[in-house]
């Protein structure tokens, strides 16, 4: 059982590196034809495990949400993905930020959140610690 869980975890991590869909239907809805969005690992880096697992478990729901946001806001895929990742991670905070923006607050760029080199190094270190600890617990117990 533990080995199967570890294998599933590693498999899900490998799927994170699959590039996003680039079908004709998706390209037609983009504001910028060069805006390809980012792979599931981008969701994990920017907003954490919740949007990452939504992308892996229910990709149709994620894609519908991104497409709807693109149409409503008239933005590119990367911006829509960043906003939907933030929404899936914490809908309340995302909604509050959007309300603040309507009241004149500066627009928060969710598409580039947590992508500075320093933040990427910290995220990678934390991910390695969590994976190592999780593997130890699942394979060997406490």
Automatic annotation (TrEMBL):
<keyword id="KW-0472">Membrane</keyword>
<keyword id="KW-0812">Transmembrane</keyword>
<feature type="transmembrane region" description="Helical">
    <location>
        <begin position="120"/>
        <end position="139"/>
    </location>
</feature>
<protein>
    <submittedName>
        <fullName>Uncharacterized protein</fullName>
    </submittedName>
</protein>
<feature type="signal peptide">
    <location>
        <begin position="1"/>
        <end position="16"/>
    </location>
</feature>
<keyword id="KW-0732">Signal</keyword>
<keyword id="KW-1133">Transmembrane helix</keyword>
């Amino acid at each position: 059982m533990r080995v199967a869980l570890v294998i599933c975890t590693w498999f899900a991590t490998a799927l994170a590196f699959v590039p996003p869909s680039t079908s004709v239907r998706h390209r037609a809805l983009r504001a910028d034809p060069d805006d390809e969005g980012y792979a599931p690992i981008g969701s994990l880096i920017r907003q954490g495990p919740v949007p990452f697992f939504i992308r892996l478990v229910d990709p149709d729901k994620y894609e519908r949400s991104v497409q709807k946001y693109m149409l409503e806001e008239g933005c590119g895929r990367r911006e829509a993905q960043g906003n939907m990742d933030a929404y899936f991670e914490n809908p309340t905070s995302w909604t509050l930020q959007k309300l603040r923006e309507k009241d004149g607050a500066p627009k928060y760029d969710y598409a580039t959140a947590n992508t500075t080199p320093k933040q990427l190094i910290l995220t990678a270190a934390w991910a390695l610690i969590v994976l190592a600890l999780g593997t130890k617990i699942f394979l060997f117990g406490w």
